[in-house]
Amino acid sequence: MPDKPRKGTPLARRLWGGRFEGGPDRQAAAYGDSLAYDRRLYREDIAGSLAHAAMLAATGIISAREGRALGRGLKAVLAELDSGAFEFQPGDEDIHTAVERRLSEVAGPDVGGKLHTGRSRNDQVALDLRLFTRAQVVALAGAVGDLREALLLQARRHATDVMPAYTHLQRAQPSTIGHHLLAYVAMLERDFGRLRDAYARADVMPLGSGAATGSSLPLDRAHVARTLGFSAISQNSLDAVSDRDYVVEVEAACALVMVHLSRLGEEWVLWSTAEFGFVELPDDYSTGSSLMPQKKNPDVAELVRGRSGRVIGDLVAMLTALKGLPLAYNKDLQEDKEGFFDAVDTTLASLRIAAAMVQRSKFRLDRMAAAGSDPAMLATEVADHLVRLGVPFRSAHEVVGQAVREAARRGATLADLGLEDWQKLEPRFDAAGLEVLDARRALASRALPGSPGPVPVRRAIARATSALRRDRGWVASHEARGHPPTPGKAV
Fold first, then answer.
1. Per residue in 110-149, pLDDT tens?
2. pLDDT of 4 above 50
3. How far is CA 310 from its chain centroid?
4. In this structure, are residues 354 and 304 in contact, taking their beta carbons and an 8 Å threshold?
5. DSSP β-bridge partners for residue 185
6. Which of the residues 83, 96, 234, 289 is marked catalytic?
7. Is pLDDT at 451 greater than 90 in this prediction?
8. Taking 50 as the threshold, does the pLDDT of residue 3 lie above it?
């Protein structure tokens, strides 16, 4: 049976009630209200309102006395929200309604009613979300830096410790732990760059765009931008209220961060198995089994891997919501927040837990060195030696492949083959070729930039450390711009 009609919400509690004879159906109101999740934007909303009120007073649109009263009232509302004393009402459809309703109670309706002068919820919401985005990008960039630092710490400790490099999850060639960890540092450097770029797109002040076409009042948009520390002002009112590109960019950056963390988590899961035995996870970042007393499960790494799907889904949901929207604002854009909050919260938590896990993990150097010294992985070294003797690479590749097959037939390794065995396959093979079958010697020969040899690894660590120091400076400078702090949880 369909639901019976429900009594409407009193009009006095809605910002737009004058046009309507009755209040909205309660089910419709509950479906459209966003207070349950956008209340976490209260600090951004009040910061934007304080800047707007100060501008209205500075331009003479309202009196200085009214501007001061609005400022006092908004700060009183902020104190109530911060302390938890704020009482939300059934008609508070979103955080903007709740703040303005309480402001009118604190400062009086004649004063409180002037706050919305020259402003629409459309450009107000856009401002709040941009303020939130800037602060979150800085926090995410800082957490990316923390994980880079944890990886670099381990890379310095194990710059020359041998382990296998893999392709197709098969042992390929000797490498080092330091080189392997630096690969994740490189990924995270790109992640930082994407976040920094996304910040620039979010750092645009939209207030003054109104509902769609600005305002006829003499608003000073530059005044608000300066107060809130924005670098630019939006140049098209239709775009300003409907633009969520910056949300997509941050979600895309988060999705890639989570993909990288998922790859890291997958390797930690594999490396902590008895089959690999490369990593010993800290006890307090592992769990046991409710049935099997011997189990030590890498749950943290598995959760990081699993939660990547959520953040990827958040990005897809936002793109899907945007793809068919005509200009300018549409209610679909209310769907920008829940997924965005989830993406940044999940990514931030995952970065922090991954940094702690990496920093406190212990590498089983004996197991990694044994796997990294498998003579079969030195086949390319022998082929390169033959190339230095003048053998074409394709021929050298064929010769070494035949040697691998012969060693396997004997149940031996390449290191077990003698000079005569090699010379039967290629007469030019000499005794020096037998000496290349050593993992550390092979690594020492890797001197090209970006290689796992001791010299390039140490240089890469120094370069990555310098890049991290530079990027930490960016984070510190943007933290110092005084972004409104965002609560870690909803009120």
1. 999 999 999 999 999 999 999 999 999 999 999 999 999 9
2. no
3. 12
4. yes
5. none
6. 289
7. yes
8. no
How far is Cα 17 from Cα 72, in angstroms, rounded to an integer?
Answer: 27
Asked if residues 164 and 371 have their Cβ atoms less than 8 Å apart, the reply is: yes
Tens digit of pLDDT for each residue in 169-185? 999 999 999 999 999 99
Residue tagged active-site, from 52, 63, 104, 168: 168
Radius of gyration of the chain (CA): 31
Chain centroid offset of residue 459 CA: 27
* CA distance linking residue 241 with residue 202, whole number of Å: 13
Q: Is 272 a catalytic residue?
A: no
- Strand pairing class (362-363; 162-167): unpaired
Is the peptide bond preceding residue 141 cis, with omega within 30 degrees of 0? no
Is pLDDT at 245 greater than 50 in this prediction?
yes
Has 237 been annotated as catalytic?
no
Say how many residues make up the chain: 491
* Residue that is written with structure tokens 């709740």 in the block: 98
Strands 232-233 and 204-205: parallel
Least-confidence region, from 2-11, 346-355, 372-381 = 2-11
Residue 14 pLDDT: 54
Q: At what angle do helices 299-322 and 336-360 cross, to 10 degrees?
A: 160
pTM beyond 0.70? yes
What b/e sequence results for 236-265 when a residue is b if at least 16 CB atoms lie within 10 Å of its CB, and e otherwise? Answer: ebeebbbbbebbbbbbbbbbbbbbbbbbbb
